[in-house]
Structure formats: C-alpha cells, structure tokens
Amino acid sequence: MQVQATFPELTIEQTVEQILTCRKITRNQQRWLISLCFKGSLSYQQDNLINQVYEALRQGLLLVVD
Length: 66
Hints:
Elements: H1 12-22, E1 24-26, H2 27-39, H3 44-58, E2 63-65
Parallel strand pairs: 1-2
C-alpha cells in the first residue's frame, strides 16, 4: 500500500516557518517533507530547512499532532 502525501499551496519555506513558529507538525506535513527528500530535487537551502525540522523533532522541540 502506497501512501501519497500531498500538501497544498504553501512553499517548503512557508511550511517550515509555520512548523517552527507553532512548534507543531502534523503527520501529513511529515510525510510531505519526507517525500520531498526522496524526490531529490531540493535546493541546498530547502534541504537545510527540512533538516532543521527533523533536528527540532529529534530534540523534542516539536509536538507531533494529527
């Protein structure tokens, strides 16, 4: 079974800013960011932004919500 993560109109930068500001991330946002990593078409800056999110998750700074 394949799960497709789609996330509407927000850019990567806007999404990451929202996540880090609110200190919350949804499962759909997680799936979307992971799918972007696997596509391999991220700029260096976008890759760094996504790494910031996962580092914040690892440190327990973000709350995962559904």
